[in-house]
Amino acid sequence: MSALTLSPATGAVLKAEFTLFRREPGSLFWIMVFPTALFVVLGSIPTFREVGEAIPGLRLVDVYVPIAILTALLMACLQAMPPVVTGYRERGILRRMSTTPVRPGSVLGAQMALHGVAALASAVLSVAVGRLVFDVALPQQFLGYAVALALSVCAALSLGALLSALSRTSKAANAVGAAAFFPMMFSAGLWMPVQTMPDVLARIMELLPFGAAAQALSQAGAGDWPDWAHLGGGALWAVVLTAAAARWFRWE
């Protein structure tokens, strides 16, 4: 039981970071509201609610639920988390923490936990809105969907940690995060779902963490167990990015 209990110092950091996090309406909006709002706007387009030839048996609105989920993850881990962690380092907060019982790692862990939970809450909201508003079927392979979502969260958090490690200032974190956001969203299928891409382009996107995640979530949503190549790709990216973040992260 004691191994599962947070130390008083870690618990205090998590509580303080949660208080600061919920006082940031901008971050909460972009993580928890914007992805679903974008999904609703796209789903309101009549052609998105019609079964087309590009994806046999599916409407575009069905395909865009995983994309909305990945949008929330990328908002949390590229746009929201890195500037906060980098700002703490820039202002010397992490260095001062190293002289107290509170270790700097507790701050990074708290930030990853809070942004991960916010992104998961956004995922639940997107699935619920898809079902209630657009009659999108709930994931048919629930366990496979949960596994794919968990790997997607891990990959996104590790990417955010790497960005936090490499950015020397919060301004740099914002700039790099914005630059990385659009290629990552393209690979996730925001502008063109991976299922509709030409074969060569689709195969390239599936090698990237969010292209693989989009495919795995779509497969589980349709009732199939996600392709092991997609799950394995997501897991590999999470491990590689985490190792890189640990290698290059600096607390001051």
From TrEMBL:
Q: Which UniProt keywords apply?
A: Cell membrane, Membrane, Transmembrane, Transmembrane helix, Transport
Which molecular function terms from Gene Ontology are attached?
ABC-type transporter activity
- Indicate the family of this protein: Belongs to the ABC-2 integral membrane protein family.
Its chief place of residence is membrane
Q: How does it sit in the membrane?
A: Multi-pass membrane protein
Superkingdom of origin:
Bacteria
Protein name (Swiss-Prot/TrEMBL): Transport permease protein
Q: Which parts pass through the membrane?
A: 28-48, 63-85, 106-130, 142-163, 175-194, 228-249
Compartment annotation:
Cell membrane; Membrane
Q: Which organism is it from?
A: Streptomyces indicus
Q: Which residues form the ABC transmembrane type-2 domain?
A: 26-252
Instruction: Please indicate if the UniProt record lists Cell membrane as a keyword.
Output: yes
Q: Which GO terms describe its cellular component?
A: plasma membrane
